[in-house]
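In the design runs reported in the main text, the only information available to the sequence generator was the tokenized backbone. The following block is the verbatim input for one such run; it is reproduced so that readers can re-run the procedure and compare outputs position by position.
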């Protein structure tokens, strides 16, 4: 098996970074059906802008306009915990890439990251880039999350206490002016707050231009915004490190995976003092910790592995011999989902079940029961739905044409119990769109309407003066050859979901 080469994004050249950010999997870093790709639009916009930003192409300030970016929702708990996902306006997105990846600007940003990375705070979540074929990544890449887990276990030799905490709504609360602080330092940024040519101010302004001028929050759903969030959080790391040095706190170590912190020390007093500093420095950039989720462990090994992962290991150790029928295996999966909804461990188990059931050759006698159980897992844990869609796709393939329609009506009715969930609807549509199934799917979700061939605007283009730029931002270009969609959702099609699940 060929070895996958991988780099941290800050190890790339500016041209390599630009190429990476322009990939459809970077523009939107959640799984979408294989017939949806944003690269055609991004490439065409790049060709029109020719390395420039939007300033020479607009008739008015887009920050004064609504719905410039396209937002849709995903649900975190099947009830009322919605998370907005945002497709940044292609012209703004490409402008940001052109700006950030300009040679001198890229070097400035990389220099700041090098300053953030020194000391007792370890960032374990910078985006990783495969330098080999993307399809091989899911099987071979070792993730940073695995590394934070292994590093935590190593630190049990040095420390007796570990405290877990994370940020509430990190992307939604980030103060955009702090992007400039992260790049230039707070003193220089405040001194030059009106300088429209300052790199940090330019990035800040472009991000706000797609979000009605708001200074609270950045878009969620792209590798580019993950990178911006890491820039700000790296700046916070620097502030934390300097304050803890001034306070002469005893021995400690902090591991950070994006907005998730693990604080290691040798006493309650040390880790609690550090927590206070972390909270204070995050508050300065608009963020606050979810103290209800904060947990202190006085045994580092116990606190290094998540409870749901340990439970999943126990479940796997039971083996197929203890659940010999597909229904019993699926019921066991359902039971786990009730205990650990939307967990990483559940996604891994769903992914493994999808792979196993894709090898099923004969129609099970209890087909409707299996579909009912799988659908209920999806309702209780919407984050697992790409995998659940794959399972339902496999099961529906065994039904007769008449049964398919009846079963599908029941599945769709069931899923309507999760309101306002555009991401789920996109995957529901994927199940029935193949010509072998060909069941109509009606939805108000913009992407679903485009897949159905309807003329739909995703982004507000009224602020654009350039006819050439308007012309290339044609949402219909995001859909490729729907008529050739495979009948079944295979594990390869949900590679990102499978990759993230396997890495957990």
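Verbatim output:
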């Amino acid at each position: 098996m060929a070895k996958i080469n991988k780099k941290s994004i800050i190890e790339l050249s500016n041209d390599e970074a630009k190429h990476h950010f322009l990939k459809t999997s970077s523009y939107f870093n959640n799984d979408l059906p294989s017939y949806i790709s944003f690269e055609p639009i991004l490439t065409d916009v790049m060709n029109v802008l020719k390395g420039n930003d939007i300033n020479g192409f607009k008739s008015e300030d887009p920050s004064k306009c609504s719905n410039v970016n396209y937002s849709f929702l995903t649900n975190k708990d099947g009830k009322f915990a919605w998370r907005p996902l945002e497709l940044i306006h292609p012209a703004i997105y490409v402008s940001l890439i052109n700006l950030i990846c300009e040679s001198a600007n890229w070097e400035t940003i990389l220099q700041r990251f090098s300053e953030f990375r020194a000391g007792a705070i370890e960032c374990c979540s910078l985006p990783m880039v495969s330098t080999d074929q993307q399809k091989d990544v899911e099987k071979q890449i070792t993730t940073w999350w695995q590394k934070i887990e292994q590093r935590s276990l190593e630190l049990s030799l040095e420390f007796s206490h570990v405290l877990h905490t994370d940020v509430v709504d990190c992307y939604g609360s980030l103060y955009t002016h702090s992007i400039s602080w992260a790049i230039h330092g707070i003193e220089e940024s405040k001194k030059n707050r009106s300088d429209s040519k300052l790199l940090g101010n330019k990035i800040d302004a472009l991000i706000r231009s797609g979000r009605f001028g708001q200074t609270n929050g950045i878009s969620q759903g792209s590798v580019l915004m993950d990178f911006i969030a890491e820039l700000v959080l790296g700046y916070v790391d620097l502030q934390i490190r300097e304050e803890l040095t001034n306070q002469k706190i005893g021995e400690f170590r902090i591991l950070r995976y994006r907005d998730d912190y693990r604080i290691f020390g040798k006493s309650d007093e040390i880790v609690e003092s550090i927590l206070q500093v972390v909270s204070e420095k995050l508050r300065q950039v608009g963020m606050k910790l979810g103290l209800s989720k904060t947990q202190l462990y006085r045994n580092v090994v116990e606190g290094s592995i998540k409870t749901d992962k340990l439970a999943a290991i126990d479940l796997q150790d039971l083996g197929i011999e203890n659940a010999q029928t597909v229904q019993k295996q699926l019921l066991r999966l359902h039971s786990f989902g009730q205990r650990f909804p939307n967990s990483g461990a559940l996604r891994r188990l769903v992914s493994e079940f999808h792979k196993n059931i894709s090898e099923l050759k004969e129609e099970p006698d209890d087909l409707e029961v299996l579909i009912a159980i799988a659908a209920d897992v999806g309702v209780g844990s919407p984050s697992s739905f790409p995998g659940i869609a794959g399972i339902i796709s496999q099961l529906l393939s065994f039904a007769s044409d008449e049964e398919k329609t009846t079963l599908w009506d029941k599945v769709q009715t069931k899923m309507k119990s999760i309101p306002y969930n555009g991401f789920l609807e996109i995957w529901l549509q994927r199940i029935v769109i193949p010509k072998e199934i060909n069941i109509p799917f009606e939805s108000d979700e913009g992407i679903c309407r485009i897949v159905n061939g309807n003329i739909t605007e995703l982004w507000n283009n009224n602020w654009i003066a350039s006819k050439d730029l308007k012309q290339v931002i044609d949402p219909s270009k995001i859909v490729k050859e729907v008529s050739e969609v495979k009948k079944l959702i295979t594990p390869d099609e949900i590679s990102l979901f499978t990759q993230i699940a396997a890495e957990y």
